[in-house]
Design brief:
It is a single chain. By secondary structure, the protein is mostly helical. 74% of the residues lie in helices and 0% in strands. It folds into two domains: 49 residues; 264 residues, Up-down Bundle (Glycerol uptake facilitator protein), CATH 1.20.1080.10. It contains 15 helices and no strands. The model has no long low-confidence stretch (mean pLDDT 84).
Length: 321
């Protein structure tokens, strides 16, 4: 702008001649410094206008691919530890959800605070089974073997279960849901939060196999979308928002998340005083929900046109061989 005008010698001389003898800018050096600052300011503004807060779809594909390769090559003991962390994080989110319900905040607010679990997984770093369903992309693309995919899923799932159960037992014994009377003795008086967790667990256990699968499908479609959007965002604030909205949606609607249920169901059984054998009932919900979560993640990934073309090209390659 100004620099373009002053590139012409005649314009430059005319500008100098019209300058007052005294003023803010009274020397040629001062003018040059002034113009240089304006040009730098213009460049910075141009850079700000060109900043894109998200990755392109091509960059996103590369990011998810690299992340999948890294996960596939992570050692089993590391997957187990990171899985335990994720189980703890999601259980904390589940606990916040129960607190919100008990305070009369409702499912929408409860869903928003429940997202703390996924936020901690994404920002702080951990391995969550439902998010790792995204690794199917790399397995289909032959970036790593199916064996590595299954190994990741097994150790992460086990870690999630250990983390969730550890948190569940500790908060039960700490008396958050009523005074504990023993390892499996339940609480002295079931009221308030205690009555709430018993009701939540009972409702989940009453679901039929098919209903649990369907709810699991839609749940993980939203969770995988949250993970993809968070990976697409460049700054932490955007990543947090990307986690909150889909998670708030699935919680408010009433979809089922297998790792969250590793806290929400056992805590109700602990409060109720169920025996060790009685706790095995959790698998009547967690197993079909896990199946639904895998199917939901698979569907949301592979119904994308680019993924369909990729699978088609792989099948053609196999036939040509």
């Amino acid at each position: 702008m100004l620099s373009a005008v002053f590139n012409d010698d005649d314009n430059w001389k005319e500008f100098l001649c019209r300058l007052p003898d005294s003023g803010v800018v009274d020397t040629e050096i001062g003018i040059l410094k002034f113009i240089n600052k304006i040009n730098k300011w213009g460049t910075n503004m141009s850079d700000m206008r060109s900043y894109d807060p998200k990755l392109t779809f091509e960059e996103l594909g590369k990011t998810i691919s690299k992340l999948g390769i890294k996960k596939a090559n992570t050692k089993p003991w590391q997957l187990l530890l990171l899985g335990i962390l994720a189980g703890l994080y999601v259980s904390i989110g589940g606990h916040l959800f129960l607190v919100a319900l008990n305070e009369g905040a409702g499912k929408i607010v409860g869903g928003a605070v429940f997202s703390v679990g996924l936020i901690l997984v994404v920002i702080a770093g951990a391995e969550l089974f439902t998010g790792n369903v995204l690794m199917l992309v790399g397995a289909v693309s032959r970036r790593y073997s199916v064996r590595k995919l299954i190994t990741n899923w097994i150790f992460v799932y086990l870690g999630n279960f250990i983390g969730a159960m550890a948190y569940t037992y500790l908060v039960y014994r700490a008396g958050y849901f009523g005074e504990s009377t023993g390892a499996f003795g339940g609480v002295a008086e079931i009221e308030g939060m205690g009555a709430l967790v018993v009701a939540v667990a009972g409702k989940k256990l009453s679901l039929s196999f098919g209903s649990a699968v369907i709810r699991g499908i839609f749940c993980n479609m939203l969770v995988v979308i949250a993970v993809i959007m968070a990976a697409m965002a460049k700054d932490i604030t955007a990543k947090i928002i990307c986690c909150i909205v889909p998670v708030m949606a699935f919680v408010a609607i009433g979809f089922e998340h297998c790792i969250a249920n590793m806290f929400l169901i056992p805590i109700g059984l602990f409060v109720e005083g169920a025996s060790f054998a009685g706790h095995m009932a959790i698998w009547g919900n967690i197993l079909p929900v896990t199946i639904g979560n895998i199917v939901g993640g698979f569907l949301i990934i592979f119904i994308h046109p680019n993924r369909i073309r990729q699978i088609g090209s792989l099948l053609k390659t196999k036939k040509s061989r």
